[in-house]
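Any chance you'd type out a single protein's sequence alongside its tokenized fold?
>
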Amino acid sequence: MKILVLGSGAREHAIILALKAEGRGHELYASPGNAGIADDATLVTVDQLDGGAVAAFANEHAIDLVVIGPEAPLVAGVADALRERGIPVFGPGRAAAQLEGSKAFAKRVMDAAGVPTGRAVRAASATEVESAFDDLGAPYVVKADGLAAGKGVIVTSDRDEALAHAAQYLPSGPVLVEEFLSGPEVSLFFLSDGDTVRALSPAQDFKRAFDGDAGPNTGGMGAYSPLPWLDEQFGSEDDFVSLVTEQVAMPVIRQLDAEGTPFIGLLYAGLILTPAGVKVIEFNARFGDPETQVVLPRLQTPLSELLLAAASGNLEAQPAPSFSDDVAITVVLASEGYPEAPQTGRQISGLADAASVDGVRIVHAATAGPDAPGGDLVATGGRVLNVVAVGPDFAAARQKAYEAIGRIALDGAHYRRDIAAAVAG
């Protein structure tokens, strides 16, 4: 197939690597892409927020499938523009993408669908935020209602810090103050064609910047898959996935369909396993980052078949996706100052040496080409690279990942050293 992937991050690079690994000779295009994606797909220039421009490119180049990676084009309605022109696209339309674009919308849908989640109060002023804090108590959970690139959420016992976070986002609209839920977190992806869902393997990511879950929230500093400890509580991964499918994914998909806004694409369920059962923390309307980087390397079913079936309304004909018994972990290399004030423009070296470690792949998140031929790549954002390692067990995968990341040089960079440590034994 000819496939166009929109986006420029590690999630999109991971999708492209999975499509390339099928060995089916797909013609892969990406816009805008990054320096790593350029090695695995043809970079093209098209405004990813302009549905008409994306559709024109797809028609001109006979694209068989468009995959929308980031949230911004989804919320901008790019998928709607493509569907109106009969172009297969993996990604929900503008209305359904509000599951991620608006926390308040997501809570309303969950309530209507009977999906288990924490209590939430919509607050439009500092006074209302204070009242919600009094009602729900500490620790305080405050979320920006709209898109905030993974930085709109704070969880803290410091009331002043929580108030300051709310004050940062209130000028743009109401915020959500939520009940604090405690327990291990799980990310679970569901492919949907608007009617049928197919689950992928669960993953866990690490949101805090530093070891031991210290420091500020980030877009994610690492992840691993599968989650062997699910067996203890649920019997097996399959039993856990079935439970979440029945209690979370299908009710939401049915609710959106009943409202005339079918969800076609990737439903990301951010879950927490509380003493009172599995509850939803949040939904995203696209593949999660960095979880995608550890889920897709284990996927044995061709990704292209799943994406096209969802985009075409034929997911029911697809059996449940299969996964290898191997484990995968990813460690994120971040720029100095990330997440508050990342330093960009610095050179990166040692990538070829790192990639030579057996079972390791380097997934690019924010890189650009050298200024001169043969020069080093440069970092263009906060999360720069993902080192992904696949192995027969977590101890082996961790050894590979940390050996590889130790070979990469980026002045001032930092990364967590405890990714998947708890499951490695």
About this structure: The longest strand covers residues 264-274. The chain has a mean pLDDT of 95. The two ends are 43 Å apart (CA to CA). The first helix runs from residue 10 to 21.
